[in-house]
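Students often ask why we bother predicting the structure of a whole assembly rather than each chain alone. The short answer is interfaces. A chain on its own may look different once its partners are present, and contacts between molecules only exist in the joint model. In this exercise we take two input lines together and write out one structure for the complete complex. Read the inputs first and try to guess which parts will touch.
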Amino acid sequence: MAAAGIEVTLGSRDRARAETIAAEVVESWPERRLAIRGSDNAGAAAADVVILGTPWDSALPTVQPLRDQLAGKVVISMAAALVRVGQQLQAITLGRGSVAATLQAALPESRVTAAFHHLPAEDLSNLDEGLFADVLVCADDASAKETTMALVEAIEGLRPLDAGRLTQAQAVEAFTAVCIAVNIRYKARTYVRMGGI
Amino acid sequence: MAAAGIEVTLGSRDRARAETIAAEVVESWPERRLAIRGSDNAGAAAADVVILGTPWDSALPTVQPLRDQLAGKVVISMAAALVRVGQQLQAITLGRGSVAATLQAALPESRVTAAFHHLPAEDLSNLDEGLFADVLVCADDASAKETTMALVEAIEGLRPLDAGRLTQAQAVEAFTAVCIAVNIRYKARTYVRMGGI
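Now the answer. The structure tokens for the assembled complex follow.
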């Protein structure tokens, strides 16, 4: 993500690994002077806005020990619950509907939003080639939604679209399975653009 | 839909109503010489390919009496199970996952495909203004998928995309709720374009 002027703390259970990866990213794009540093998960959770970038089934155990620290904060959920069934990845319905709703239930004092689901990681991490993708943002808390949409807006080539309340995250997350199915079928790295807007 | 050279039979429980609407459509676009006629549902089910265009909760009762007649045919499901919850339309999960899967279970001898979910009806029925939208097509039967994709291809401005097996229809259908949420929020008539392909 090329977001000018935003300080990023990359968290990991393994602080040394996060520091190594952060340094690699900074070195890869020297002219961008990226402000990315590595830390442990508690260090990352100290940020104003926390993006949860783990695989979906690690999201809950990752945030549970950070519940108090994340109170009041904007926590952005970007994972989708997908499982391999035969040849395809299929969206599954969690008890609470979505990963985002699961996180909100585990973090009652946090303001969970959902965003960034349909972006191909490879394109997102290539700061030289532009992505021109829409990011559907769901949230119940209006100011958390605003913060999340402003963050999307700050990233080159991404357009935030307000997709409604957090209950819509289930449909947004599930659609990731469709993006991946299309990717596999067409050997492409697709992303979503909403036309007519 | 402007599909050159395709004969369409519009079905309804009320044959006279279907005939009136078919005549209105033909008269609205005289230079197109559309081959659209009205009939009852059994008449519509006599076609080679049957598109089920009812509201989602009428889909099952509509096809049940036509089960034998629809045997072996391609039946295209375009509905999404949405309910109004508060201010928004929300996708709900049916027992069998999707409307398409529900229809497939009710029509075991038919070849059900899913397509046409995210298209704004108003734009689709305006043959003068082009839509440039992607249509995600799901199917288990390969030749039924091919037939459905060819039909999409025959409609000006629509691009068919193979979105995998019928199980993916759940995610495709649910995404309709997101399109509608975006439509309401932005007072737009959005449709889906997959970038990067």
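Check your guess against this: The interface with chain B takes residues 85-86, 88, 90-91, 93, 120, 123, 131-133, 136, 161-165, 167-168, 170-172, 174-179, 181-182, 184-186, 188-197 of chain A (CB under 8 Å).
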